Amino acid sequence: MRDDATEQHEGKKHMPSPLRIAATFVACAATVALAPPVVADPMDPIPGNGTFVVGPDIAPGLYHTGGTASTWGVWINNIPTQGEMCSWFTYSTPDASKDHVAQANSSMGPMYANINTSVKAFESQNCQPWSRVG
Question: What pTM did the predictor assign?
Answer without folding.
Answer: 0.64
